[in-house]
Amino acid sequence: MQDIGAGAPWRPSRRFALKLAGVVALALFLAWLGHNVAENMAQRGMHFSFDFLHDPFGVDISFHILPWQLGQSHGYALLVALVNTLFTAAIAILLASALGLLLGLMRLSGNPLASGASYAGIECVRNVPLLTQIIFLYIGALQLLPPARASIVLGPDIYLNVRGLFVPVPEWGWSWAVWPVAALSVLALLRAQWRQRVPAALLAAALATLFFAFAASWNRPVLRGFGFSGGWLLTPELLAVWIGVSVYVSAFIAEIVRSTIGGVAKGQREAAASLGLKWHQEMFLVILPQALRAMIPPLTNQYLNVVKATTLGAAVAFPEVVQVFARSIMNQTGRSVEIMLMILTIYVGLNLILASLMNAWNRRLEIPGR
Amino acid sequence: MKTMRLSFKALFGSWFNSLVTAVMLALLAWIVPQLWSWALSGATWIAQSKTGCAAGGACWAFVGAKLKLFLYGNYPAEQEWRVHLALAVVVASLAGCVLDERRKGRWLLMLMASVPVGAVLLAGGILGLVPVRTSEWGGLMLNLVLAFVAVLVSIPAGIALAFARLSKSRTISWAATVFIEFWRAVPLLAVLFMGVVMLPLFLPKGVSVDNLMRAMIVLVLFTSAYMAEVFRGALQDIPTGQTEAAAALGLRKPQVALLILLPQAMRIAVPGIVNIMVDLFKDTSLVSIVGLFDLTGVAAQSVKDPAWLGLSTEAYVFAAMLFFVWCLLMSLSGQLMERRLNSRFSGR
Known about the structure:
heterodimer; A: MetI-like fold; 4-stranded antiparallel β-sheet; two-stranded antiparallel sheet; 8 strands; B: mainly alpha; 14 helices; globular
């Protein structure tokens, strides 16, 4: 901010006294809050300790990526829930980015049908609360799906029914199929000299994964009696949160895509056209790389929103951090202060980590010296 | 003829464009008739219970039967005039602020005063009004009450926080930054849980507040942090020359802030404030998870009526439509205000 008091007749001693008074008032206020908490906790016979983390958790977790058995500790249940939150956020960020890019490009295309449909869709999604959309998806759509015997077949070995989405998984589990891609992508993003070759590296990694995946034996979902066995079940709760959050955030990403692409200098487009580049070449080689630079700060905000929005899983009892920790475990143990402290720490930490990652990416893309 | 040729080119100019057009047409041909027959042609508008509704179409009779629940929650029917009166006071003072420029200050005061007046009207208990417990407030009314109070309180709070964050004193700036960044980093639902569970612990012995008040306090703090960032951006957008000129005229610090910076910042902040208002209005739906019956909450309540079981699609579609209309109203009036402000100051 500008220097307000350049010529103002303020004596330093008075300023110092005011400042001191402010600091003392703030300290007193915080102390008063702390005193109230201590007094109230003493009155209710509560004491501050994290022992409850070792006690067994008596509620089942319906969807988990880490192995989970009934009766494992509260602390481990929190870890399972945290991995669920991270997984949901990751797949929602992927889907939201893809959908947002598609909707944004549709909006920009000269085709009035495409841009009109995109505009209508974006406005409908943006002006209705995410919570309403998630609950509607869950109760109004996913629970009205047919039973297992009449499953909707979405592709080879992919079934959608009232119990969720059944997908095949490679026999050797997820670890080896996902880790090489993840490791290569992270490496590619981090190593400066690889930056030019990111698309190539990603493509190679994807091809390698596909090759191994097809060569491996698959654990396919098979209809037995009234249900499916085998495969991997994405529960309706996960689907509701995943699709709901992705669609909602994609509307905002589409607006970001639209405005940043519109912000790329017109001369760039004309230059690309005069070089004889096709529409897709112009878009992916000239416009998008430049727009990406302006996109990252607002995109960071949207990605942070995705992480926060996964908490709405609590509305449909999807086992993420707030549902498992702030509801189930809090109800069982009554340790409100400790649990709330941990939850707030987790989200502030996640926020800081994601924000600094995106900032690092932003710095990489910045034009040096500008 | 020319427009036809142009639109033909826009739709079928290249093979890719023709493909897009074909895909969009196919999608529309698939969705629109289904939507039409469900929502309008096959819908039932008048029925006594679910059995009277035709299968395959929407049962709007259910929404008609539950309309009061959607709008007022479980607020006593014979007291509904109080809700209308409170709404009228708010709308009148808002309209006054926008339309009657010359007495803007007076209308703003009235808007501020409408919070306590509205609270007395809705809660009752004095002046011969029948008391209505806040647990009976609900529906769209609750969303509006929460959003209105949170916006009105968070604007001055946000301005104060923004000035504090920009303060030259490190301590003050640091304290404001920590406060703002904390509230912006945590999910609203998590802090709502915190408010409902932990707020009583922060209060002195013997003082207790009900669930609605707890949610309100959390919403105010949460929104203030976002408002503060909007105002900070606006304050930083004001050219330094303004402050220097004011200082050269011999204005004191508070005078510079109140008379020079704030009026200009307000104008720059309008789009940001409107965005926050729309987001906040949507976010008030989260209170249904912590046990209040806002529009989303009453939608869940309405489908439990034995006479109307299993009509959740209608309930949520109607709730979504109400939200949609209000959000659209807010964005449109925000755009209107922005345009008026811009046209007035563009000649500067």
